[in-house]
Design a protein that fits this description.
Radius of gyration: 17 Å
Shape: elongated
Number of strands: 3
Number of helices: 0
Bound molecules: zinc ion
Strand content: 15-25%
Order of helices and strands: EEE
């Protein structure tokens, strides 16, 4: 399983000029705002994402 995750937009300024950082695995640098950030995979959700628009009240 690949741990690569490439962001499309900077989470801070929204710019697309991202490039991999040498700071570490999953680290990226934004050339627009000069911020460095890191993506981390936390794990899978236990039940997945359930949509609540199926109608009816479910408790
Ligand atoms: Zn940015």
């Amino acid at each position: 399983m690949s741990e690569r995750a490439a962001p499309f937009y900077c989470p801070y300024c929204g710019d697309e000029d991202l490039r991999p950082s040498e700071a570490g695995h999953g680290a990226w640098e934004c050339a627009a705002c000069s911020r460095a950030f890191q993506l981390k995979f936390l794990g899978l959700l236990a039940q997945g994402l359930k949509r609540s628009d199926t109608g009816g009240a479910q408790i």
